[in-house]
Amino acid sequence: MEERDPVSWSVMIGGFVKNGDYDHCFQTFRELIRGGSKPDNFSLPFVIKACRDTMGLIMGTLIHSTCGKPNESWVLFDEMRKDGFVPDKVAMVTIVNACAKLGAMNKSRDQRCRAGDCSNAFQFCVFVAVTVLVLFALVLVLSNNGVEASHKIYPRYQTLNVEKVKQLHRTGYHFQPSKHWINAPMYYKGLYHLFYQYNPKGAVWGNIVWAHSVSKDLINWESLEPAIYPSKWFDNYGCWSGSATVLPNGDPVIFYTGIVDEHNSQIQNYAVPANLSDPYLRKWVKPDDNPIVNPDASVNGSAFRDPTTAWRADGHWKILVGSRRKHRGVAYLYKSRDFKKWVKAKHPLHSVQGTGMWECPDFFPVSLSGEKGLDPSVMGQNVKHVLKVSLDMTRYEYYTLGTYDKTKDRYFPDEGLVDGWAGLRLDYGNFYASKTFYDPSTHRRILWGWANESDAVQQDKDKGWAGIQLIPRKVWLDPSGKQLLQWPVVELEKLRGHNVQLSHQKLNKGDHVEVKVITAAQADVDVTFSFPSLDKAEPFDPKWAKLDALDVCARKGSKALGGLGPFGLLALASEKLEEFTPVFFRVFKAAAKHKVLLCSDARSSSLGEGLYKPSFAGFVDVDLTDKKLSLRSLIDHSVVESFGAGGRIAITSRVYPTTAVFGKARLFVFNNGSETITVERLNAWSMNKPVMNVPLKS
After folding, report:
1. How far out from the chain centre does Cα 485 lie?
2. What backbone phi and psi angles, to 5 degrees, belong to 47?
């Protein structure tokens, strides 16, 4: 059939979906778009169903990240409407059903919908589904052309220098450059080095160099000139993420991804210090024998990036490079005897179908006992390994614990762990492109994560900066062996100033008690809650078992009265609670045991418009025998970084209050459950500002 009308296209798409042949469904839909046809009210529901049933609409998690900016999504939706697409009732029902699967219908539970006007929530659901569909089709088109983009490009903003940086929402004690847009940490000769992706010319992604800052304590930082920037044929179009390795003789080496052409073709390069006697490592050299790794014909050359820190086993150095094959996430393994000539292994270290592109892979050992970190090359019976990947499709991360067979060069996740999108996460909020390193001076493994902005690109340009590094965290294995624990590095406590304490404070249903006399916009809060009984815990609806924790949080927010919870903190709150960011626990009674939910809910965080305000959440694996739950939150103007149950869970939210700013911000403890809660102990500190990226004095 040489020519197909819209009806023919739709019949074919529908047939593929009914037979479960989603690959051909997507391929045919792509051909329909390429041929100049428009999706109609018959074909679109089928494609959305295919997306929903496989992976497409799960991409709605993009709303939790860079693509999750409402005004940009509305632009896409408006463009489709201007293109002539007007969904009928059948299409609308299908879209809403898909949204419900995704969890976007949580938006319908806002005050307007409860008042009987669901149009706003309904429109939101429509643009989520249509936007994700457009994005998914675009990804397929780009992938089939051999080019896969990782960042949204804004050429008109990339080189707009900023004369005056706005301080509103700028963090006080989190790592930020002086301005503009902001990977490989390491320890060398008494100094911590942080190399990070940075745009020196604008507040959006682009013009990327490896910026370089140094610190003696992980808290106070001085900036140096960029360590790496595009200058040679093997990186002339970009110097992207990578890692640092310190060799046994003490020499550091950087591996990074070089972009060689306008098609984003990616190769792996290395750089070495120009002067090893300089502890600040001011200058770096990119030798002419680069690249060290070229993708062969079996590898997607535009989805091949972010080399890991190297480890040594069986006489070979080894690294991973993140990639994908169709929808399968892949960690390719490369070996070298001399650290210069690298050969691809016969098979990847690990791969998982349906996860999409793996960015920023991280592979490291953890001890089965104690909290000490391990050098990347440590093996043995007292060791587990961790494989973490950043998911380009969803813009969040997951990790598994498992066994590394150094002879076969294969990684096997522990039995019972979810190896995919629903797996364990280092942080259940705004957290991406994380990287760990071994600190030999303190025998710790330290985790760095990055948090993007949740406002619009135009707002980033106006304020003159975007992106922060989160507080570095110590990471170790939980005694159960089932998950990692993490906690802010102890050096952060140097910034603690004025202290306020509460103890044995009763919180009855509906109570909120202010924690006064601290700088609530810039604080460190550590609190332990207790409760007399678990009897009032609400039953856990079996239907929720298939939902993400964030969907349960959205249904059962901080204002919804409960039994045992919600209780916790109201951070960055205005005096009359027009704005607040609640971080709270809610305990449910499930069939086998109690389920503990920790939420960081940004929906009430700001009266501002054009913001992405999600409800982030995760379930906490914690023993409730002592009937206590602990929470620590690092509050810093536009970020709330929270750790529950001693570091068993972490959630980061980016928020942009309009009235609860600077000295007008308030902090409360609250309880909206029928069970009385006791604040056993609360310590809150005003946090001082560190030295942050002032130029190093020669």
Report:
1. 17
2. -65, -40
Rg (CA), the chain: 25
What is the DSSP track for 513-534? EE--SS-TTEEEEEEEEE-S-S
CA atoms of 346 and 374, how far apart (whole Å): 28
**Inter-residue contact 374 to 365 (CB < 8 Å):** yes
In this structure, what token pair is assigned to residue 690?
């560190």
Q: Rounded distance, CA 295 to CA 305, Å?
A: 10
At residue 399, the pLDDT reads: 98
Question: What's the Cα-to-Cα distance from 504 to each of 100, 249, 520, 645, rounded to whole Å?
Answer: 42, 55, 21, 19
Each residue of 573-625: pLDDT tens digit?
999 999 999 999 999 999 889 999 999 999 999 999 889 999 999 999 999 99
Cα(309)–Cα(328) distance, rounded to whole angstroms?
23
Provide the total of helices (H) and of strands (E) in the chain, helices listed first. Answer: 10, 39
Domain 496-687 has CATH 3.60.40.10: no
Beta bridge partners of 367: 383
Paired with 332 in beta bridges are 321
Q: What pLDDT was estimated at residue 461?
A: 74
Question: Consecutive 10-residue runs of the chain (698 residues): their mean pLDDT?
Answer: 53 63 59 54 58 44 37 44 49 50 40 38 42 38 41 45 67 73 79 88 69 95 94 94 95 96 96 96 97 96 96 96 96 96 97 95 97 96 96 92 96 96 95 95 96 79 79 97 98 98 98 97 98 97 89 93 98 97 97 94 94 94 97 97 98 96 97 98 98 86
Whether 62 and 394 have beta carbons less than 8 Å apart is answered as yes
Strands 465-466 and 180-181: parallel
Global pTM reads: 0.80
Task: Quote the CA–CA distance of 502 and 209 in Å, as a whole number.
Answer: 47
Question: In the chain, where does the domain assigned CATH 2.60.120.560 lie?
Answer: 496-687
List, in order, residues 6 or more apart from 512 with CB less than 8 Å away: 570, 577, 668, 669, 670, 671
Which residues on neighbouring strands pair with residue 334, listed in sequence order? 319, 344
CA distance 616 to 550: 5
Give the Cα separation of 629 and 586 in Å (integer). 10
Which residues of the chain are in CATH 2.115.10.20 domains?
A: 165-488
Q: Which two tokens stand for residue 591?
A: 């069939």
The CA distances from residue 310 to 145, 336, 384, 446, in Å, are 32, 10, 17, 16
Q: For the segment 50-80, what is each residue's pLDDT rounded down to a tens digit?
A: 655 544 333 333 333 333 344 444 444 444 4
Architecture (CATH level 2) of domain 165-488: 5 Propeller (2.115)
d(CA 646, CA 643): 7
In this predicted structure, what is the pLDDT of residue 459?
76
- Give the Cα separation of 463 and 666 in Å (integer): 24
pLDDT, residue 471, reads 96
Torsion of CA 615, 621, 624, 628, to 10 degrees: -50
Residue 362 sits at φ, ψ, to 5 deg, of -140, 130
Total residue count of the chain as it appears in this document? 698
